[in-house]
Specification:
By secondary structure, the chain is α+β, with helices and mostly antiparallel strands. It has helices spanning about 5-20, 35-50, 55-65, 90-100, 120-130, 130-170; strands spanning about 25-30, 50-55, 80-85, 105-115, 115-120. About 25% of the residues are buried.
């Protein structure tokens, strides 16, 4: 076997590991970006907790096929960059924002979230969703609200009773 073949096997293994570790993966066409814009996009990705990489389409296709996903074969044509996200929404948010910032320079192709193929419209929907942490915080807040309201009602009830008793005491005293 040639050294080139062995090098490709190593890269496919690296892609497989990143696919397994990532909560979401977004594929984009980055054809018209300048080097400075790509560097800025990599920095935005890093800040939001995702990783922006460019691999050969054949190697990404091989890794996806090894995982049993053939839905991405059509999207892995032309210049393709891959954003590996640490949660279900951050890679989609960064890439959709970049598509807006760099008009017609970045085109969303598809995504891989929860072991499923997500089309372009799905990626945009993912980008508009709050992150997992935000959803948990909202849920906890909504669960805590009735308890807080109940405590407030009890507090007002006790305060009302104290005011009435104080008024009665002043009348008799």
């Amino acid at each position: 076997m040639s050294a080139n073949f062995e090098a490709k096997k190593v890269v496919v293994q690296e892609i497989l590991e990143k696919l397994k570790a990532a909560k979401s993966v977004v594929l984009v066409d980055y054809n018209k970006l300048t080097v400075a814009e790509v560097s800025a996009l990599r920095n935005k990705c890093r800040e939001s907790g995702c990783e922006y990489k460019v691999y050969k389409n054949t190697l990404v296709r091989k890794a996806m096929n090894d995982l049993g996903f053939k839905d991405f074969d059509a999207d892995l044509n032309g210049p393709t960059a891959v954003a590996f996200g640490s949660d279900e929404t951050n890679a989609a948010k960064v890439m959709v924002a970049a598509a807006k910032d760099y008009e017609d320079k970045i085109i969303i192709k598809s995504a891989f979230v929860d072991n499923a193929y997500v089309d372009k419209a799905g990626v945009k929907a993912l980008a508009s969703m709050p992150s997992r942490e935000e959803l948990v915080a909202k849920m906890l807040g909504s669960m805590q609200a009735p308890v807080s309201n109940f405590v407030g009602v009890l507090n007002n009830l006790v305060a009302g009773i104290v005011r009435v008793l104080h008024a009665v005491a002043e009348q008799k005293g």
